[in-house]
From TrEMBL, chain A:
Protein name: Branched-chain amino acid ABC transporter ATP-binding protein
Gene behind this protein: livF
Superkingdom in the source lineage: Bacteria
PROSITE patterns: ABC_TRANSPORTER_1, ABC_TRANSPORTER_2
An annotated GO BP: L-amino acid transport
Automatic annotation (TrEMBL), chain B:
Protein's GO biological process: amino acid transport
Protein name in UniProt: Branched-chain amino acid ABC transporter permease
Pfam annotation, one family: BPD_transp_2
Family note: Belongs to the binding-protein-dependent transport system permease family. LivHM subfamily.
One term under GO cellular component: plasma membrane
InterPro entries tied to this protein: ABC_transp_permease, BCAA_transport_permease
Keywords: Amino-acid transport, Cell membrane, Membrane, Transmembrane, Transmembrane helix, Transport
Record bears the keyword Transmembrane helix: yes
Membrane topology qualifier: Multi-pass membrane protein
């Protein structure tokens, strides 16, 4: 579904990604793990069209999407739950959700998708008119996921979704990702919570200093001596 | 000095203030969404005033009727400016943005000087000599028309931001530009629309102001400054604040002009500004940063 080859990304003179190649098959959950500053968020931003790659190619369903603008990429079906949630704090919860469905592809099915969001996140339904900035951190994360679903994505990217959330909320969120996967959603999961995300993922990639150093099935990576030592402290 | 004189001056100030408010609304919308300060705001208003002037003298169209056309033209001007020029200067240091907008302002002022010359021009409508009397009040007909039209345009703008998808999307961009890109909003285009809306407001205000004052090219810097005073009084980025600030400045100009001396009216507006900066720096309806 998604194929990336030889991707370079620079911020000014600083190289954030160096020759990253990876692929994601349909209905797969792929975890990308790595230390802070390894380039995980840069990778997400490059796929989403929010950062222009210096070199390399990104193909989505056989189409070259390298360097397309973020609104075009969203419209093709790639959506993200961004780091730090990035909700609209002064807009109401309902307006936030509606903004998730402004891309042409999603607009027609808005009503049905909204109902589905309410099934997944009943709490949001009771707070539709409240401004989103007044929600708790966990509720804001649920709103961010709901808003992402409103865009009818075929590939969802989660960037550090557990960051700053209470443990109970974190496990609820991983359950949602598991449920989405069971329904057939394709997921890229970027997480600092290495063991949980590798357990959940079909496959994983380890990113270090902007390059992929290791890849394999989730279980294989979990059992890898280097991964265990570097990321799990075992 | 009797009570009815005082009331007449007050109501005239209130009515003029609504037109000022509409002008400042444009400045406030542009700043609130893109954090760009439109230093060419007064110049764009002068362009609109001349456009309305030409439409009246050449085609016989009265300014209120010309307003949709002039505002539409100014929308296109603002949209293109943002789309092809100012969008490239977002996120650069502020003094570069300042120089860019100032250059646009100077170009417009001098173009107006070349085309129309430095003399003040005005238009005379039949309505210019008519007035309404409401109880003890005597209200100039054109001032009432200008104020109500300004209020109507402001109400339309409010409804646009509150109820339309594009309006909500613009508020979303103002709220969180990164989030706007995350959901796939076309931020550059929404910015261009926003700048167009801002300049359309000032275009509408220019048509209405032509009913009340004479137009000449050097009016521009006065009104840019007036726009700033108004939005800072009311609160930067607040739509209601811009209208309230406009009314306050209109009132203070009218009252100081009538009770003390017309040449002192700007002094009182700036006095109000200093007072607000001291007591409530975020503006009367502004949110604390």
């Amino acid at each position: 579904m998604l194929e990336i080859s030889g991707l370079d990304l620079f911020y000014g003179d600083a190289q954030a990604l160096a020759g990253v190649s990876l692929d994601v098959a349909e209905h797969e959950v792929v975890a990308i793990v790595g230390a802070n500053g390894a380039g995980k968020t840069s990778l997400i931003r490059a796929i989403a069209g929010m950062a222009k790659p210096g070199a390399g190619k990104i193909m989505f369903e056989g189409k070259d999407i390298t360097g397309l603008s973020s609104n075009r990429i969203c419209d093709l079906g790639i959506a993200q739950v961004a780091e730090g949630r990035q909700i609209f704090p002064t807009l109401s919860v309902l307006e936030n959700l509606e903004m998730g469905a402004v891309i042409p592809r999603a607009r027609a099915k808005r009503k049905e998708t909204l109902e589905r969001c309410f099934q997944l996140f009943p709490k949001l339904k009771s707070r539709l008119d409240q401004s989103a900035g007044t929600l708790s951190g966990g509720e804001q994360q649920m709103l961010a996921i709901g808003r992402c679903l409103m865009g009818q994505p075929r590939l969802m990217m989660f960037d550090e979704p557990s960051l700053g959330l209470a443990p109970a909320v974190v496990s609820e969120m991983f359950k949602i990702i598991r449920d989405l996967h069971a329904e057939g959603m394709t997921v890229i999961l970027v997480e600092q919570n290495v063991s949980t995300s590798l357990k959940l993922a079909d496959r994983g990639y380890v990113l270090e200093n902007g390059g992929i150093v290791l890849s394999g099935t989730g279980t294989a990576l979990l059992n890898d001596a280097g991964v265990r030592q570097a990321y799990l402290g075992l | 000095m009797d009570a009815s004189f005082f009331m007449n001056v007050t109501s005239a100030g209130l009515l003029t203030g609504l037109v000022y408010g509409l002008m400042a609304l444009g400045l406030s919308v542009i700043f609130g969404v893109m954090r760009v300060v439109n230093f060419a705001h007064g110049d764009m208003m002068v362009v609109a005033m001349y456009a309305a002037f030409l439409m009246f003298t050449k085609l016989g169209v009265e300014p209120v009727m010309a307003l949709p056309v002039v505002a539409g033209g100014l929308f296109v001007l603002g949209y293109l400016l943002q789309r092809f020029l100012i969008n490239r200067f977002l996120g650069v240091t502020e003094h570069i943005q300042f120089l860019l907008l100032l250059s646009i302002a100077i170009i417009i002022t001098n173009a107006m000087l070349m085309v129309f010359g430095p003399d003040a021009r005005n238009i005379q409508l039949e309505a210019s000599f008519e007035s309404y009397s409401v109880g003890p009040l005597i209200l100039d007909k054109v001032r009432v028309i200008a104020a109500f039209t300004a209020g109507g345009v402001a109400a339309l703008l409010w409804a646009f931001f509150r109820y339309t998808t594009t309006g909500t999307a613009i508020r979303a961009c103002a709220d969180n530009p990164i989030g706007a890109r995350v959901v796939g909003l076309n931020v550059e285009q929404l910015y261009a629309i926003t700048f167009g809306i801002g300049t359309a407001c000032v275009g509408a205000a220019g048509c209405l102001l032509l009913l009340l004052v004479d137009v000449h090219p050097h009016l521009s810097s006065d009104y840019t400054l007036l726009g700033f005073i108004i939005v800072i009084l009311g609160g930067l980025g607040s739509l209601g604040g811009a209208l309230l600030g406009g009314i306050l400045v209109g009132l203070s100009e009218a009252l100081s002009g009538a009770l003390i001396a017309p040449s002192l009216k700007s002094m009182f507006s700036f006095g109000l500004l200093i007072l607000v900066l001291l007591l409530r720096p975020q503006g009367i309806l502004g949110k604390k940063p």
